Amino acid sequence: MKRLTGKTAIVTGGASGIGEATVRLFVEHGAKVVIADIDEQLGQALAEELGEMTVFQYMDVSIEEDWTAAVTKAQTLGTYNVLVNNAAILHMSSIIDTSPEEYMRIIEVNQLGTFMGIRSAIEPMKAAGIGSIINVSSVDGLHSSAGLGAYSSSKWAVRGLTKSAAIELGQYGIRVNSVHPGGIYTKMGGADRTSEKDMNRTYYAKHPIPRVGQPLEIAYVSLFLATDEASYSTGSEFIADGGWLAGLRDPDMPCS
């Protein structure tokens, strides 16, 4: 069963990682998708592979004109009614070693980019009478770690922005939710530096689900939120973290 027939979506950061998995899954379920990404080579290649259901749009999510172009392109495909704000960058550094310029670049992409996406979607989704905005935050938008001051700040902000937008836009039939992945095996998550096997052994062994997550597992959460099956869900956090926030298994405790 195709669950997104009649939907047209923009997926930012759609050329790789979680974004690519989301694009592929949405197309599989009948959606037309604008693949929005700063990486033209990867984005064009994916659009060519997936065919007429997709189109690539170069996008720096912090630039308003790029959002205007993406929305215009989405409207040429059909009724624009799904947005996945997925694009993000990670900066790992202590606060004292993070420059204001580095901090603000994280904010511009992860936080301002999400704001710009929501803002650009309001009028077309109001006209459609229905819409789903899915903001990909992080487990680090619910807790934090040393060295993630900039990244975690931006992801907490996405969570708060999601709730505010949900309150404002629900009256127009537009739902706004946030997705909070745990560790996912992507380039951002360290896949270019560590094998999946080593990552599972050294970092995830004590997690309730003792392995790193896969991009498709997050894409399925966004699939649900994009469908009309999620029609009564808004302003909520959807966590897919392998149980990370529940707590880790202590080998000194029973049943561990």
TrEMBL record:
One GO MF term attached to the UniProt entry: glucose 1-dehydrogenase [NAD(P)+] activity
Pfam annotation, one family: adh_short_C2
Superkingdom in the source lineage: Bacteria
Enzyme kind, highest EC tier: oxidoreductase
Entry's EC annotation: 1.1.1.47
Protein name: Glucose 1-dehydrogenase
The family this protein is said to belong to: Belongs to the short-chain dehydrogenases/reductases (SDR) family.
Keyword Oxidoreductase attributed: yes
PROSITE patterns in the cross-refs: ADH_SHORT
UniProt keyword annotations, A-Z: Lipid metabolism, NAD, Oxidoreductase, Steroid metabolism
